[in-house]
Specification:
The chain is 33% helix and 13% strand. The chain has six helices and five strands; from the N terminus they run H-E-H-E-H-H-E-H-E-H-E. Helix 2 links the parallel strand 1 and strand 2. The relative contact order is 0.18.
């Protein structure tokens, strides 16, 4: 263990047990009662339509459903492409604007390259988006992760509740036949706020 520099004061944050005791004390103070202990509920708001932004919501929803959590997913703006049968088979992954993109395979050329971000200028070259998308889909397939339409089938079979945003639906001139069969309806943001009452909410 490294020595603490002279003059450096380590803050005392207390032990995890003391935090739990403090939280319990605060919860019961002034008659507030114990912390909420009802059925677990998760609300996922999916607002991005890129391939790399589709999977986080799908994976979280699937994991939560597997743990017995009541899951509600709201697809809004470009996230509506995830449940649109005309687009969800062809979601793209682009390097542009993605400064975190790096390739594990480059580590075979020289150690450390796998952690280097890919130059943004490469994303402007013709065919780079198609190549990056193909590469990501292959990595997913190698890990036995289903493609987006199949993932939606799994979520629907697991009892996950999926909804399309009314505003985005109308803005994109969609019809209900465009939606994946697992989508239970086209609802407003206010409707989803009511549905997701007392839920842990994650915006993606």
């Amino acid at each position: 263990m490294r020595a603490v520099p002279a003059g450096f004061v380590i803050p005392n944050f207390g032990s995890p047990e003391s935090h739990a005791t403090t939280a319990a004390r605060e919860a019961t103070a002034d008659g507030a009662g114990a912390a909420y202990g009802g059925p677990r509920k998760l609300a996922l708001i999916c607002s991005k339509g890129n391939l790399d932004m589709a999977y986080p919501g799908l994976i979280l929803g699937n994991a939560a459903a597997g743990e017995g959590v009541e899951v509600h997913m709201f697809f809004t703006f470009w996230g509506l492409d995830i449940v649109n049968k005309k687009t969800n088979k062809n979601l793209k992954f682009t390097m542009l604007g993605n400064t975190a993109m790096h390739m594990a395979e480059l580590g075979y050329l020289r150690a450390g390259l796998e952690h280097r971000s890919m130059p943004q200028v490469l994303g402007q070259l013709p065919g780079m988006t198609a190549m990056a998308t193909k590469m990501m889909k292959k990595q997913m397939a190698d890990l036995d992760i289903p493609d987006v339409p199949e993932f939606l089938d799994l979520l629907s079979a697991a009892g996950v509740h999926m909804y399309a945003c009314r505003l985005s639906f109308d803005m994109m001139k969609m019809i209900e036949a465009d939606l994946h069969p697992g989508v239970q309806g086209v609802i407003s943001a206010a409707d989803f706020i009511e549905i997701s009452a007392n839920a842990q909410t994650i915006f993606i």
